[in-house]
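Appendix B. Raw example, untouched.
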Amino acid sequence: MDAADEQIDVRGVTGPHRDVVARIAPAVCQIMHCPEPGVAHAIGTGALIRTSGGVAILTAGHVAALGTIGHLRARFNYERTSPGGASAPAVDWDVVIAEHWVDGLDYGLTVACELPGQPPPQNVFEPLRLGSSSALQPGDALLCLHHPNGEPKQCSTGTFIAFADSQLRYRVFTGAQSSGAPLLNMNGEVVAVHRAELSPAGPGAKIGTAIDAIRRTSLGLGK
């Protein structure tokens, strides 16, 4: 994977990124919105991380906010087993909002509901590590693991462009339902949460909430 706009199923990644992607992919999940019983729509992507109170799923604030109407569900392991093949059995947990849109930052934290007979995610998937967004230099390579357009989990490569206040600008392939996806450095550490395309006039230029800004603001990720 060398092209900045390339996407590939996470289980099909080869080359220098293969080991990192294999290690971090299980922690990335699809976020579903369930406005009423029996109805579920893919709305974004999230990633399991550690917080001061345990583990939580980090996503975009505008994704988490939909949980104020109906409820949210995190779908782990939604991946193709082979190119063009069937999807692996998914693991679902209902989640509740812990934080979202704090101090104007577009991020959200949700936690799994511990239902009888269902272990919480920390017993199954290893949470991602948080990196430092301020350590990035223009041109640094980035990884994005996400569910673009509701598809099984994909990996895209891209490059960091610049900082803009509490946000990062970067070039990487994304699609609808990529909102909330983790942007990661080459060590597999989260440096931003994907938010949106920068503008229709600049396809490929995207913005995400910097992890350093989230850590300074979030009660769950605070010092």
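End of appendix B.
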